[in-house]
Amino acid sequence: MLGFILRRLLWMFPSFFAVTVVAFVIIQLPPGDFVTSYAADLATSGSPADSATLDALRLRYGLDQPMVVQYFTWVGNALKGDLGMSFEYRSPVSDIIWDRLGMTTLVAFCTLAFVWLVAFPVGIFSAVRQYSIGDYVVTFLSFLGMATPSFLLALVVMYLSVEFLGYSVGGLFSPDFVNAPWSFARVIDLVQHLWIPVVVLGVAGIAALVRIMRANLLDELGKPYVETGRAKGLPETTLILRYPTRVALNPFISTVGWVLPVLVSGDVIVSSVLSLPTSGPILIQALKTQDMYLGGALIMFQCVLVLIGTLLSDILLAFVDPRIRYDN
Amino acid sequence: MTSVPPMPPQENDIVVEVKDLSTWFDTGKQVIKAVEDLNLTLRRGRTHCIVGESGSGKSITARSILNIVPKPGRIMKGQVLLHGAGAGREVIDLAALDPKGRQIRSVRGRDISMIFQEPMSSLSPVHTIGQQIMETIQLHRRIGKKEARERAIEVLAQVKIPRPERSIDAYPFEFSGGMRQRAMTAMALICEPKLVIADEPTTALDVTTQAEILDLMKGLQQRHGMALMFITHDMGVVAEIADDVTVMYMGEVVEHGPVNDIFFAPKHPYTQRLLASVRALERRSHRAGPAPKLSNDDAILEVSNVSMNFEARRRFFSRAPKEPPVKALDDVSFTLKRGEVLGIVGESGSGKTTLGRCVLRVLDPSSGRIVFKGRGAEPADLAALPKSAVKPYWRKMRMIFQDPFSSLNPRMTVFQVIAEPLLNHGMTDRRALEAEVAGLLERVGLPREAMWRYPHAFSGGQRQRIGIARTIALRPELIVADEATSALDVSLRAHMLDLLLGLCREFEMSFIFIGHDIGVIRYMCDRVAVMHRGRIVEIGDTDTVCDRPSHAYTRSLISAIPKPDPRLRGKTQRIRYTSEVEG
User: Fold this and answer.
1) A-B interface: how many C-beta pairs under 8 angstroms?
2) Residue B293: its pLDDT value, please?
3) Which residue ranges make up each domain of chain A?
4) Is the complex ipTM higher than 0.95?
5) Which pLDDT band holds residue A54 (cuts at 50, 70, 90)?
6) Does domain B13-121+193-280 correspond to CATH entry 3.40.50.300?
7) Are strands B397-400 and B478-482 parallel, antiparallel or unpaired?
């Protein structure tokens, strides 16, 4: 088991390297660079810059260097903790994103926990009582949940909470607390605001996972080992939780790998609608203005989340299923 | 051991009594009477065999006794009386209890336990053997974890699992099929039940493993004195272990009685037919006739020194040394003459299927020569040809598959299924195709109208006939049949083999017949090759190999086959073969 985790950790390095390459290529893909869009900006505002100034800018940011050199400078600095300067904000990228990344992670993990806590029991219920009224209701709701765009849901929830709960919606804090130092009251305020994005982001995930859990468990419920358990004299509930559910858990755990990044990237539109201080909105802005270091850092962060998610799910899988642990 | 003990059955020997049991499946469209008016008496210390073909209701009977009938099945009427349950020695009717209630649950596993057919899927893949065995006793007795573990080790030793104190922490996938079935047996025995129900416990096992498990069960029953209800379709197994026999057909009991009466004085025509079809496989088919005269220079296939290795997976970042490749075939050579039927027999994992696939070049052998000589064609070494150049030969060499259910595409009509190889090889005229398919269907014993229907409309035997029609459509010269009759009921096997033999002689086809059942091989084949761990250990005339085997492994294989004659019980000496290569 330890060897497995170690091997799996070692695999992270080549994967991480590949990820940085992909992130860098993506931000370089659009034609032109930041200076081009900066020049266009200046031109529209009526004071076009001369080409000497632009070239000087390029030289200062190293944009005249070949791609490979730019890449290694970027990665090398990133490893030292220097993610570069944001052209747009004229300040170090790390200053801009840390706060937002923290909030993003918080929202993502809360949503993940919420999704699991709801999807797991509901999925089991839906499978065990297949074709019952309860199952039909759950099935109907999950299709509804999957089909509803989350930004629409965000608008609905915002409307409801303003109308009936009298909250200030939007953001993760009330206006009084936005710039306040951390305190107990601020945490309470955060929790009061957090549930909206968590519910909005979680609904689609719950719907999908309920369906997955139901299908997995239905596959397992007919297996002979369930009958063996029944013939032993196990009570039905213990039997279902101890045997088929345990096996049906595998694909469920595998989903951690993709649920995390989906939550993070899925929150781009929802965050804009709910004006959350997460990384989504600034990523869009950075991509639009070709603010390459800011955009690159954010994309890299998302990729790292995918890696972590996959790592977590692999380790959990090996923990739950001995067949994976012993595979050699 | 040769005859039934003469002691008169006593009232207090009865463990379970089934009276007028009916279990029906209401599918909404129709009601299937899986079990109808069944009566059965199971006595202490006796083995009661339930025999019948697939779908005769024997498994549902077993599940009805434990009241674990799967949905939408329901016990409609009748009683399942368990005698001497609990402290008061009272009689309880299990069929009347709530299937999920506490009372029936306390009976399951403690008074009546069950051993299932498929030892891999009947054990949870994610729990250790020990966890699953200990759970049973912890459910039924107030017992500490440590004590339960000791008890589990004790039963594992009883079922002869080597090093039980270590095996207890193994997972089922680390065990072989026979070991898993032993573990399953240990699980059934741990609470010392009054009745053990075994549902085809040896069907999925090799003959030699089956012989060991049967020996084990007989021994355990003598030791514990419980009643054993043994469900099987194999009359050989019945002859081997039964005291009493109940024959089921279409959900009803057609005959029951002591084992000797059933074997030597069967009253019901169905029992007679069943016995006749089993005994038919004891000798050579009347259709086979004398082996065709074969000259040595007319070989259709020459296989020489073929080996096939499966490379172990190499893992990145792994410090473990590379594992040696698995030798699925190890220096195999044989010659198949034109018009000959060659049997290849061996246990699972002996390489017989790999050999068949290498001959057809579905798999690529690692080394060796496979020379195929078609009629009026130059001999060609298939092993040396690139994959693309093998394709034309697949017109002359074809395969019959084991599973008639999954080897036919359910979305194609029988016409499409059979016409496909003809189309692939350039026959496109619709009318000619229809005439050809009709002719083929009639040749395999199906009406020509069958071509417009889909495979699901046919039974297993009929589907296998459709598969055969597809195989012979191109008039191949060589057919490889891999366990072609294993999935069929015994009563159908002899018919299917006769059909194949007839076709073989009629079209002058050569046959490689792969199987694990010596009876089938003997019925069908002119010569037989015995495989063990990737090698051919013996090859020769079928009668010589079956009656006077020269290799020790062949002797052990033949001695392990249960003979459908209860008088021979205990008389045939079982020979154990331990290979010089330990693995």
Assistant:
1) 86
2) 60
3) 2-93, 101-325
4) no
5) confident
6) yes
7) parallel
Asked if B139 reaches chain A (Cβ–Cβ under 8 Å), the answer is yes
**Quick one: pLDDT at residue B147?**
94
User: CB A224 to CB B116 under 8 A?
Assistant: yes
Q: Tell me the CATH number of domain A101-325, given options 3.40.50.410, 3.10.20.600, 1.10.3720.10, 3.40.50.1820.
A: 1.10.3720.10
> Per residue in B223-246, pLDDT tens?
888 999 999 988 889 998 999 999
- Mutation target vs A (from B122, B137, B181; most A CBs, 10 A cutoff): B122
Provide the pLDDT for residue B581: 43
Distance CA B226, CA A200 (A): 61
**Closest by Cα among B68, B76, B61 to B105:** B68
Q: Can you tell me the mean pLDDT for B511-539? A: 90
The predicted-structure confidence for B547-556, as pLDDT tens digits, reads as follows: 899 999 998 8
The predicted structure's pLDDT at residue B296: 58
> What is the distance in angstroms between the Cα of A124 and the nearest Cα belonging to chain B?
18
Which residue's structure tokens are 């039940």?
B193
> For the packed helices A292-320 and A244-254, what is the interaxial angle rounded to 10 degrees?
160
Interface test with B, best of A223, A225, A226, A241 (most B CBs within 10 A): A225
User: Tokens 């069908």 map to which residue?
Assistant: B524
Mean pLDDT value across chain B: 86
- Distance (Å, whole) CA B275 – CA B262: 9
Nearest CA in chain A to B104: A233
SS3 at position B338:
coil
Q: Which of A235, A243, A322 sits opposite B105 (nearest CB)?
A: A235
Q: Name the closest residue on chain B to residue A318, using Cα atoms.
A: B126
Which of the two residues, B108 and A282, has the higher pLDDT score? B108
For chain B, how big is the Rg over CA atoms in Å?
26
Q: Give the one of B108, B116, B125 whose C-beta lies nearest to A247's C-beta.
A: B125
Q: How confident is the model at residue B108 (pLDDT cuts 50, 70, 90)?
A: very high
Give the three-class secondary structure for A295: helix
Q: Which of B105, B171, B184 sits opposite A322 (nearest CB)?
A: B171
Can you give the residue ranges of every domain in chain B? 13-121+193-280, 403-475
User: How would you write B50-96 as a 3-class SS string?
Assistant: EECCCCCCHHHHHHHHHCCCCCCEEEEEEEEEEEEECCCCEEEEHHH
**Side-chain-side CA neighbours of residue B189 (13 Å):** 25
Q: CB distance from A90 to chain B under 8 Å?
A: no
The segment with the largest mean pLDDT, out of A12-26, A102-116, A196-210, B467-481, is: B467-481
